[in-house]
Design brief:
Length: 174
């Protein structure tokens, strides 16, 4: 039987080595600090156990999720939080701007290389790492070359077009 339990991924109540396999879909980008969540997963997955994660990186076209999409291509990768807030306030009002900015600030704003470094530093062996490019994002970026010139510091061109990271991990703890 399946039992769903709601809890903080950085402080799980499961016993050590409770699981052989963990699967998450578009969850890691919502958990902070990610290092603590990965340490907890290492604790609850048996040594040699497997994990499969998919991550929607923040800086791709819709990585900020629908709450962050505004009428500026890749606004979340080009505007600082105050600039984004000001833009949304002008076009949608202060209440909406506050809500949208809060949503963006609740996500892990990590690029592809940041995700890779954090997972490599975790207690897991990377068995397979795959970054999926979005043809839609690639074509829109070709239509808006100014995005590359106006992106925030630290945002790589590849961050703008990769929609998903898929990673298989093996727990080294034990």
């Amino acid at each position: 039987p399946l039992r769903l339990v709601r809890m903080d991924a950085t402080r799980m109540t499961f016993l050590d080595a409770s699981f052989d396999f963990v699967y998450s879909r578009a969850a890691l980008e919502h958990i902070s600090p990610i290092e603590r969540a990965l340490a907890e997963m290492a604790r609850v997955v048996r040594p040699g156990g497997l994990l499969y994660h998919t991550v929607d990186p923040f800086y791709w076209l819709r990585g900020c999720h629908k709450e962050g999409v505004v009428d500026i291509p890749w606004a979340h990768a080009r505007l600082r939080p105050a600039e984004y807030h000001r833009f949304v306030t002008i076009y949608e009002g202060e209440a909406k701007a506050r809500k949208r900015r809060g949503r963006l600030e609740s996500l892990n704003q990590l690029g592809l290389q940041d995700w890779r470094r954090r997972i490599e530093a975790s207690p897991f062996e990377i068995l397979d790492w795959h970054e999926d490019a979005s043809p839609l994002a690639e074509s829109l970026l070709a239509e808006h070359p100014d995005v590359l010139e106006t992106r925030l510091d630290g945002v790589a061109a590849s961050d703008l077009v990769h929609s998903t990271i898929r990673v298989w991990l093996r727990n080294r703890v034990g």
